[in-house]
Every structure is written in structure tokens, then in C-alpha cells.
Amino acid sequence: MLELNNQYTVMKRRIDAEVLRALFAGNLTQTVDSIPIKIIPREREANRCCIYKERAMVRYRIMALLGVDIGHDDDECKSLRAYAQEALAVPPVTLPTLTTITPGCSGCPDDQYRITESCRGCFARPCAVNCPKDAIVFVNGRAQIVEERCIACGKCVDVCPFNSVIHIQVPCEAACPVGAISKNEQGYVEIDQDLCINCGHCALSCPFGAIAERSSLIHVAQLLQEKEEVIALIAPAIEGQFPGNLSQIIAGLKALGFFDVVEVARGAHVTALHEAQEVQQRIVEGKGFMTTSCCPAYMELVDKHVPSLADRRSSALSPMAYTAQNIIRSRPSAKLVFIGPCIAKKVEALPIPSIYAVITFAELAALFVARDVDVNQQPSTLLVNTHEFEDCRDFASTGGVAAAVLRRLEQPVAVLPINGIDKKGVRLMRAWEKRPPEADLVEVMCCEGGCLSGPGILVHPKLAKRLRQGTNVAKVGAVRGDLKKHA
Amino acid sequence: MGQHNIMVKICVGTACFVQGGADLLLYEDFLDPSLLRICTIEGTSCLHCCKTDDQQLRAPFVEINGVVHANVTPKRLIELLREAQHA
Q1: Per the CB < 8 Å rule, is A368 touching B18?
Q2: CB-based contact (8 Å) between A352 and chain B?
Q3: Which residue of B has its CA nearest to A364?
Q4: Does A124 share its domain with A144?
Q5: How far is A222 from chain B (nearest CA, A)?
């Protein structure tokens, strides 16, 4: 996967902020077609083939931001103005969550092993000796791979003393844990929605930015302008994503116009209680291991790829669902916006009518920038009545969910954390049907490191952790210890 | 000989932070210990450099010994500090 803050992500955030500025200024439809030109001026040294392609890609980014399913509804004759008018007239649409930008796709060469010119045709020939399929032959004193025999095991890569064998990957295909992404007949990326679990790993991996998530940001911004009763549900991972402590982030959200802000860790406490009770029950009844159910990409993974785990999942609702239920009881007319690091959450939120939209931290950042809200300049206050669920803020990192469940149990249980899902992990989970894991509680996180590494994050997980712990960067103001001191 | 104390202020205004400035806060990981020793690094609220329309002057901003630099990446920060060290 790519580094978090690469040229593409930084550009994406800039476009988001620019579009929102126009929306807030009340002239989005009038100016939107000029935004690609404003962002890519003619003096720019192009990083794609030319500035015109760069402008076209900015146009596609704006379409994704407007929620257009580019893979299916790309009309080159249609102006952004027309797209924007249409988008703003209807509520946000979610499925399919990920969409492909064919003109952006480089049509990368197929996954393959190749022997490069640095091969010296050595005498020991470890590549040929270790190849289980005799797929390596020597021509003109140099190794060559016989494609038909190669099974892509990669042994030759490991043993060559000159690093002469390279593995060329298709980044999106390599990142997809479930084989949902492949190239179509024309050689461009296509996502099979029947297989896709919306983990978003492909979008994070494509260095051309050819996979985009369809956004609801513009709709949320519009809602905030209309001064409706909009309530932000903030995922436990939010702490550490912005320069300030949690109370400052909450104050920042209110400055944006959110009527109220509720920590989803509240609902996580209910989830953890439920799971604790359930895992205990299963042990008593001898029913075997149980998995967590809060990761929506994992939930989709089981539904679409590992049906044998369907009954293994905890029946607990997700923290988001419990939190939404709780708010709606006292404020039935409120419109809820979930703000998190996750794309799959958009799919999970679909059947919950009270949740109006799901946006990511990166998208929230665009709101802050467009509205000139400086998080670290917000007042820092003491958050009250958080004691019950405070430990559930750790739902955001691997091990945190299981730890919260354990804390709500009288007797400890055996825990197995699954820290990120890749192709190998899916195979392992399939094998559990015959060989169950030696654990009572399996905590599953689709992203390595947990939600702190989700596709919608803004801050390197390493830094996010430090900011959450309040170590080394006290200067920034994100000090959890500060809050404790007051308490 | 070079400089013994370099004052570094990393802007932690939201605009800088989201445009890659957050990465600069991992300075303890990417700065050489010898360089780290002679630097006094702190966060600063918005330097108001992001409010211009100048295409060349983009976030994130860092102030080094009173001079503001634009487009600062971790790699660029190392270069700038080396320059300041030998100035």
C-alpha cells in the first residue's frame, strides 16, 4: 500500500476543500467547471502525461466527490455544473461505494515474475535448483522463466544472490483480499461488486488514483448549511487525526455547524457488554469460538466469501448502530452523520434510516479547511460522563475490541486477534471450518493495525497512536493525559 | 562550526496538518539524532501563510530561525535543517 501522504492524497484533499469552498460561497454550480483549471494551471509541470490529463483527473475526482458512479455514468459531454445540480437535488447515493476511473487506469502489466538484465547466469543456479516446476531455463547464459510452467511461487526471487528476479504486481489486484478486482477485456480496472467487501485497500494502493470512493461530503456540507439538526457520530479512531485533543475536535465539529457530537465509543461499550455476555454463554453451551462483529468489511467478507463463519459472528450490533439507536430515541428527527476512517461503514449504514450519510476523516478535514476551522485553536474542555465507555475508544486499534470485552468479563477467555485481512487471511478463515482456532474470542480487523489504518484516515497510524497517548507531541495539544488531569 | 540552536516551528494549523504537515510531527523518527540535538522543535498555530492564493506557496509551512518555508516534506525539512546548521 502507498504511503499515506502522497501527491495523490494531498491533491485529493485540496480538491475536496476547493469544491466545498465554492459550495459555501454559494457559487458551486457556477464555478465548478473552472476548478480543474484553477488547481492545474497551465504553468504547472505535469506529473501525468500533460496538464490536460491532470485536469481531466481532477474533473473525475470532483465527480466522485459529487457521488457519481464514474465507472457507469461517465458522460464526457456533460459539464460538472450539470453533475453538481443533479447531485445536490437528491440525497446521497452509496452503492457501489468504490468506482473506477478508466482514463486514469494505467492498465498495468499482469502479475508476473521476470528475470532482469542483472542475471549473471551463475554456476550454482539457485533459481533453477529451487524451482519446483522446472520453469527456469538458460538461454545465452542467462536465466529465463517458461511462463506456461511457472506457478508464481516466488522461490526464485528469494534465492537469487543478485536480486535479479523481480515480482511485478498489479497494485490494486495485490491489495484486494478477495479477488474482486481485475482487468476487463480492454485491459482496464474493473470491480466485481458481487465479490467486493468495500475494504478500500485497492483505492489506497493505486498510484494512478484510478479507483475512487463515491463521497457524500457535498450532501453533508449542504445539510450543515441548512442548519438542520445534524448530529455527528465520531468513530473511536478520531482522536489523533487532528491537531488537538478530543474535546477540541468536538468543539471544531460544532463550529462547523453540527448540532451535537456523540462519541461512538458510547455504543462500543454496549457492543462490548453484549459480546462479553455472548462469549460466556457460548463457552457454557460448548458452542466453540465466536468472532467480533464490529468491522463492516469483515461482515461483508463472511457474507460473500466465508459462509461457514456466519453463525460464528457475535449477534451484537456495531458501535455505530447502538449509538444511532440511542440518539434517535431522544431525538427522532435528527439527521445523523457518521464520521470515521472506513469506507465499508457506508454499506453498513445503508439499512439504518436515521444515518443520513457516512464521511471519512479525510473528508472532514476538507470541511475544516474550507470553513477555516483551526482545531487546535478550539477551547479545550473537560469531557464529562465518559467514564463508562472511555476504554472503548481503543476499539480503533487491533486488540482494543477484545480488551474491552475482556474487561467486561469475570473470567478471562482465550483471544485471537486477526490484524488485517489479506488473501492468506481469507484462506485461513475458510480453514477454520475444519480446524477451529484455539480461542474463544476472535477479534477481526480488516485493516492492519485496526481502524487507525483505515482507508479514510488522515494521519500516519504511528503518529495517531502517539497523539492518542499524548506522548512526544504534547506541543500539538492532543494530550489525553491533560483531560485525565482535570478529571 | 555551524549553528548550535535552530528554532523550528511546525505549523499545526488544520490546513498544514492535513496537507502533509502531520508527517513532519514524526520528526523524532526521521531526523538524525545529531541534528535533533541542536534543534528546538515546537508546534505553532496557523502562520497565516496558507491564506494567500499564490500557487507556489503551499502548505505545509515550517518556520526555521524566523524564516517561513512552504511545501515542507520530511525530506525537505532535513535539507532545510542541514542548511541552517551550516549557515
Answers
A1: yes
A2: no
A3: B18
A4: yes
A5: 21
Task: Provide, rounded to the nearest whole percent, the portion of chain A with pLDDT above 70.
Answer: 97
Range of the domain at A134: 112-168
For residue A451, give the 3-state DSSP assignment: helix
Residues of A in contact with B45 (CB under 8 A): 374, 376-377
Residue B42 maps to which CATH number? 3.40.30.10
Q: pLDDT, tens digit, for every residue of B26-65?
A: 998 999 999 999 999 988 888 888 877 666 678 899 999 9
- Contact (CB, 8 A) for B55 and B62: no
Q: Which residue has the cell 461505494?
A: A97
For the record, the C-alpha cell of A225 comes out as 448549511
User: Given an 8 Å threshold on Cβ–Cβ distance, is B19 in contact with A463?
Assistant: no
CA dist A315 → A267, A273, A293, A294, A446 (Å) = 14, 12, 7, 10, 18
| pLDDT tens readout for residues A330-342 | 999 999 999 999 9
Q: Is residue B1 part of a domain?
A: no
Please check whether residues A251 and A312 belong to one and the same domain. yes
- The DSSP symbol for A109 reads P
Q: Is residue A173 part of a domain?
A: no
At A475 the pLDDT is: 55
Nearest to A314 by CA among A297, A288, A291: A291
CA distance A280 to chain B (A): 42
Q: Which of A14, A41, A463 is nearest residue B26 as measured by Cβ atoms?
A: A463
User: Which of chain B's residues have a Cβ under 8 Å away from the Cβ of A376?
Assistant: 12-14, 43, 45
Average pLDDT, chain A: 93
**pLDDT tier at A44 (50, 70, 90 boundaries)?**
confident
> In this predicted model, what pLDDT tens digit does every residue of A310-333 receive, in sequence order?
999 999 999 999 999 999 999 999
Full residue range of the structural domain in which residue B74 is found = 6-86
pLDDT at A65 over 80: yes
- Among A7, A9, A10, A249, the strongest candidate for a mutation testing the B interface, having the largest count of B CBs within 10 A, is A10
Picking from B18, B28, B43, the nearest residue to A13 by CB comes out as B18
Residue A223: all three cell numbers together = 445539510
pLDDT tens column, A399-422: 999 999 999 999 999 999 999 999
Nearest-10 Cα torsion for A37, A42, A44, A50:
90
Which residues on chain A are in Cβ contact (under 8 Å) with B19?
A: 10, 13-14
What radius of gyration do chain B's Cα atoms show? 12
